[in-house]
């Protein structure tokens, strides 16, 4: 079935909000930022609309992290953005002077 590899629970690819965030900070600030992102992830994964919240540490650049998220709906994503734990992460990013790039994406189906 088309889009089956994107399904989890009761949402489909067309309903889901896919986010890829890239956060970059100075190497000496990386441990604190990593802890802040991990804390946010722990709370985010408990949100009903959160279907994926995966953090990765860049192996080639110390201080760069990616966060891959899937939210069941736009309203679920907006609830996340208004959450205390996300607000705390934003404050941590700002206080460190870290660079934050957020991409809101739509997956494409594989074509033969």
From TrEMBL:
Residue ranges of domain ABM in the record: 17-112
Pfam families: ABM
UniProt cross-references to InterPro entries, sorted A to Z: ABM_dom (IPR007138), AI-2_Isomerase_LsrG (IPR050744), Dimeric_a/b-barrel (IPR011008)
PANTHER family given in the database record: ABM DOMAIN-CONTAINING PROTEIN (PTHR33336:SF3), QUINOL MONOOXYGENASE YGIN-RELATED (PTHR33336)
Full protein name: ABM domain-containing protein
Naturally occurring in which organism (per UniProt): Saccharibacter floricola DSM 15669
